[in-house]
Amino acid sequence: MACTSANEQLFDHLVRCETRLYNAVGERLKADHGIVASQFEFLRYLGRHPRSRVADIATTFAVGIGATSKGIDRLEARRWVRRVPNPEDRRSSLIELTPAGRDLVAAAEQTFREQLETLLAPAITDDQARTLMPVLAALRHALEQRNIGLPTG
């Protein structure tokens, strides 16, 4: 059955666009830097939020703690991040980029920006993007405020 309501159509467009964009960006990051999109997102987050906890990363990306911890383990194995003791809570660690991780993020961010320009520019003008951003930001904020979409397990 076809989507009929505005909300159904909006959901369909958002999900399909997100999937296609995420896949295309991920393919380019993998080809150019040997990382997948989720790794890039974690690394980019840590570049902007140094010394974060696994729980902080999990909450930001609405991903389970276990999956986030495994993702960080993989980044640590590649020596792109390191865990350091959390001086405020001895039960947890803080995650930070290594010099190699910082170099990777810098290079991958350039690729990311170029790929977004390639993907979005033919379809959306800068003015349209600026109009759309507050609407999507309000939707995201409303979902985050009510803890909607967080993993339950």
Q: Could you give a quick summary of the protein structure above?
A:
The chain is mainly alpha-helical and 153 residues long. The protein has helices at 6-33, 37-48, 54-61, 65-77, 99-120, 126-145, and strands at 81-85, 93-97.
Can you describe what's shown?
This protein is 67% helix and 7% strand. It has 153 residues and is mainly α. The protein has one domain (34-144): Orthogonal Bundle (Arc Repressor Mutant, subunit A). It has a two-stranded antiparallel ribbon with strand order 1-2. The longest helix is centred in the first third of the chain and has 28 residues, at 6-33. The model has no long low-confidence stretch (mean pLDDT 94).
Q: What string, H for helix and E for strand, traces the elements in order? A: HHHHEEHH
The portion of residues forming beta strands comes to: 5-15%
Low-pLDDT stretches: none
C-alpha Rg, in Å? 17 Å
If helices are DSSP runs of H or I spanning 4 or more residues, what is the number of helices?
6
What's the rounded overall pLDDT mean? 94
CATH topology: Arc Repressor Mutant, subunit A
CATH class division: Mainly Alpha
Sheet with most strands: 2 strands, antiparallel
CATH superfamily: Winged helix-like DNA-binding domain superfamily/Winged helix DNA-binding domain
Just name the CATH architecture. Orthogonal Bundle
| Fraction in helix | 55-70%
